Each structure stands twice: as structure tokens, then as C-alpha cells.
Amino acid sequence: MKLFKTGTVLLFSLVLLIGSSMAWAEGNTSKNAFLSGIHKKNQISCADCHGKSLVVDDNETALNKNCVVCHGTFEKLASKSKEHINPHKSHLGEINCTTCHKGHAPSKAYCNYCHSFGMKIPAMGSAEQSNNKKWTQETTQKKSKTEKMKTENADIVVIGAGGAGYVASITAHDAGAKVILLEKMPITGGNSMLAAGGINAAATQIQKAMGIQDDPAVMAKETMKGGREKNDPELVKILSYRSSDAVDFLISLGADMTDLVRSGGVHVNRTHRPVGGAAVGPHLVKVYRENAAKRKIDVRVNSEVVKILSDKNGKVTGVQVKGKHSGLYTINAKAVIDTAGGFAANNDLVGFYKPQFKETASSNQPGATGGGVVLAEKVGAKTIDMEQIQIHPTMGGETKVLISETVRGSGAILVNHAGKRFVNELTTRDKASAAIFAQPDKSAFLVLGEDIRKSNVQIDGYIVLGLVEESDSIEGLATKMGVPATALAATIESYNKAFEAKNDPEFKRQDMPMKIAGPKYYSIWVKPGRHHTMGGVKINTEAQVLNTEGKPVAGLYAAGEVTGGVHGWNRLGGNAITDTVVFGRIAGANAAKFVK
Ligand code: MEZ
């Protein structure tokens, strides 16, 4: 299978701007090959990039501003690209230029941490340097032993600027608290940025307008059933009964949640997403970034919390931060909210808890390494369900690209290498993954027709990424997939009959929104991969972190994937965003109350 058509995508726009003096520096690590050297040759001074003071803050504010002044906005750069994978127009949104382009070190396309585009970038250094897939915190500042550590003050520090972190920060800010939101990665968004599906919520205004009857009690029941009844029922109740408010909150921030789809293990269309089936994560993160900026919330990237500080009574008193440029410093805070995410990107930790999953691909962003769990444990937090690691059934072939459950929700079927269905496509993820693992080659294909493709804009994205085979006939598609054509034709015919009869006798699939019909037929080769860590720090319904005796750690709150208990042993698709919004809001509101 041809995975990526664009093995050598060039960043055309920047190359054009930098001009003929730009040397491709692959294999060349000399100082002159870095962007600083190239700029110098073009008579661009240090101050032109760094600003007069030459001081670089952890957000690299002046540098990024000056990059845009000279080279243009993302929009302008994107419009110059001739390549169909356009790095200046990605789901990461408008991130800092310095995320990829480095002045004094080899530049590196951030996309390469997750994708296998082999994307090249000006001044990228040696192939080895630029292909190193592991993300490591860069620091430029070394403090001498005698140098005094800088100290700042805030009401609340939030650790991790993914969905839960942004929601907690915005909520706490709106309740009157001075908030600092810290992110160890060079960009904000966390795993929420990658969320493809949507947010589950019951009895929302959107469902009502579409005539869909739903009930938070049923959402709670299905969440418990999906979690194998191992979830904390009190947390599930909060998740479900506050889910509709969570959607209203997102709409109040400016989010579009007008489309609905069904996720696995659920009896009704409950997964809310932007119009046309667009991925929910990039949209929400854009909305969060805009809302944080509007409120002037202090958001710092390249800022890793290395320690949560507490007094002799165990009350949390702040954090110690390692800034990329500022080095180690302390923020005194009356409360800390831990929203640092899960650990599905951490091979070693996954291998420790579930050795059989160690080498499976992960759909997570490279910062999902579990640091927030470790930080909280060190101030007494109890952890639960750490060995419960979710395998998502459909990642694109050998890639780290998640093929959203909404593709099945939109009507796609799963077939094996014999061209036959083998599972109810909308069962829970643990069961669907186990069914795929039981197939020869431990992989399968999603198969869909033209109407299904049109109903879910994300499929066009998978086409751009080269993950989709297409043909004008079922026979042609079968040949491309390498499965028997007669078997695939019989499978599609039998599924379409089940669709007409609204009855799937073989696999009992309840929701069959569209049949599989031409003019074009499509398939995506899929394999299961690590997606979510259900375990983490234990919290109560007030989002307070609990210690090993079941008592709150004073001043410490947590929300999102860093916590355990909400999803039991198997999370339902669409419930992660609900978790980040519902408990992010609770953590933000309660921390703000606490600091008053
Ligand atoms: O909640 C999720 O993880 C989700 C809906 C993912 C997806 O398949 O799109």
C-alpha cells in the first residue's frame, strides 16, 4: 500500500523567501548552516530577529513576531505552497514559527514526530538529527549554583495546555483568579488538538432541535457498561449530567457543535462536532487559544513543571518550572490544577503497565508521557487503573494517523483480508480492537461508498495523506486491497440488504446510516494502536486530587486524561472531550473558590 505519496515535501514558501543563498543543510551541522548563519549572510542582524534587548523568553515572542514580519503570516506562506501536504495549513493551527524553524540548532518539522512524510525543512541539519522521533525538552539556560532562583506569584498554576488545561484556566480566570497556564511542549493543544471525533453530551439543545431523544441517565449507564462497570459511578454521573452544560459552554466560547454522529457502545447520536463532520480537536483548540488570548491569560509554552511544591502539612504551594530559556524558576500559587494528560506516547511506561502494548503505534502527541501523574504522586496523590490502556481499533496502516471512529459512525464497514465482515463496527473499542487482532495479519480494512465519504470531511484528509484506496468498481477496489473480489461484492450486497431491512442479523449493528454505494468505492487499511490511558490520579466529584487515604491533597485539582476513574477499563469514543470540559470547568471553578 502506498502510504504517503509525498515522501519529499519541501517547505516551498520559506525556501523561496530565503532565496538562493539558502543551502539545504542535510548532513551539514556547521553553525553557518543554521538559520542564524543564513540570516547573517543576508545582512540580518541578531537584533532584527531577537529584538533590541536580545532577551529570549520561553514563548520566543519577539522571534516569532519578527519571523512573521519578514516572511509573512501562516496564511500567506500556505498560499505559496505547491505541495498537497501543506505544513503551514495543518491541524496544529497557527503555532510558533520557532516550533520548527530554529536559529541556532538544526530545524525540524514538528509534523515528523507523528507523521512519516519525511518532510524536509530549511537548515534541517543531519538526517539523523531531524529524524529523531523522540521529543525532548530543549533548554538553553544553565543556572550557576549560586544564582538565585527567580520567583513569581499567581493565584493558580495550571499544568498542561490541552483541552482540560484551557477550560480550567478560562473558568478560573472568569471567576476572578490570576492564572498561569504552563505547557512543556512548544505548542499548546495536547491530545485535544488531535481529537477527531467529537464531544458526547446527552439531552442537548442540538439533539432536541434534531428530534433526538436522549437522557443523561442513559449516557451514564452506557458509559458504565462501556467501562466494564469499573468506572467511579459518581464521576460518571457528573460527566453525564453536566455534559449538556459543557456543550453550551463551548458554544458560548464560540465553538460550532452543530453536527451529530454516533460513537461505539452508544444507542443514539450523541457525539457533537462541527458542521460537515470536521475534526473537533483543532476547532476547539483554536477557540480555546482565542479565548485565552482575549482574556490575556498568561500562557507559556516550552515551560515544563518539574515539581509541585507543598508545605509541611501537605498543602500545595506552587510549582517549580524549567523554562527553555529562563531555566529553573518558582511560581508560588495558592492552588495548582494538574491537566498534564495521559501517557500513551510513553513507550516505557506503557511497556511497564502492559508489556504486550509496548511496541504498538500510538495516536498521541509526543508530549503525552505521563509527567503529570508522576508530579502528583510525589505530593501524595493516589493513582488508579494505570494498567488500563485503550487500543483504538483503527489507525491508518503503519502510521500514527487515527482513522476516526466517526468514519464507522458515518456508515463504513470493517472487512478482513478475506473480504468479509467480522464484527459489529460500532461495538466498544476494546471489542473491535480484539476482533481485528484476531484476524490474520492483525489488520483490517474500512470500506465505504461515495455518500459516506461526502458526509465526513475527515475522509478527504485521509485521501490527502495517501491512506485511502479508491475505485469505480467493487472489483477494482478489491484488487487494490488484495482481497477476493467476489467475497467483497457479496459482503457489500449483504450489508446493503441489512441496511434496507434495518436489521443486521449477523453482527447486530444497530446504526446503519448509509448504504455502501458508488459511483466510487473507498477502502482504508487499518490496524489497532494505543490511544488513551484510562488510569491516572484519583479525583473526587469536586476535581480535588485524593491521597492514598482518600483525603483531598489541599490545593491540588486535576482534570482530563491525567485522572483515572471516569472511564473505567474502556473509554467510549467522544467521552474524552466531555471529560476535559466537564471536569476542567469543575477544577477551574473550585480552585478559584479555594484561592479566595
Ligand atoms: O474520543 C475519541 O477518542 C474519538 C471519538 C476518537 C475517534 O475515533 O475519532
Protein described:
The chain is of the alpha/beta class and 596 residues long. The chain folds into three domains: 112 residues, Flavocytochrome C3, Chain A, domain 2 (Orthogonal Bundle), CATH 1.10.1130.10; 299 residues, FAD/NAD(P)-binding domain, CATH 3.50.50.60; 140 residues, Flavocytochrome C3, Chain A, domain 1 (Alpha-Beta Complex), CATH 3.90.700.10. Helix content is 33%, strand content 17%. The strands form four sheets. Strands 1, 2, 6, 7, 8, 9, 17 and 18 form an eight-stranded mixed β-sheet that branches. Strands 11, 12, 13, 14 and 15 form a five-stranded antiparallel β-sheet that branches. Helix 7 packs parallel to helix 12, helix 11 packs across helix 21 and helix 19 crosses helix 20. The longest helix is centred in the C-terminal third of the chain and has 21 residues. The N and C termini lie far apart (59 Å). The N terminus is likely disordered.
Give the helix proportion (percent range).
Answer: 25-40%
Instruction: Pick out the low-confidence regions.
Output: 1-28
CATH architecture group name of the largest domain: 3-Layer(bba) Sandwich
Q: Please report which band the strand proportion falls in: under 5%, 5-15%, 15-25%, 25-35%, 35-45% or over 45%.
A: 15-25%
Number of strands: 19
Structural category is: alpha/beta
Provide the gyration radius in Å.
24 Å
Shape: globular
> How many domains would you count in the coordinates?
3
Largest sheet geometry? 8 strands, mixed
CATH topology of the largest domain: FAD/NAD(P)-binding domain
Average pLDDT figure: 91
- Count helical runs: 21
The named CATH superfamily of the largest domain: FAD/NAD(P)-binding domain
Beginning-to-end CA distance, first to last residue: 59 Å
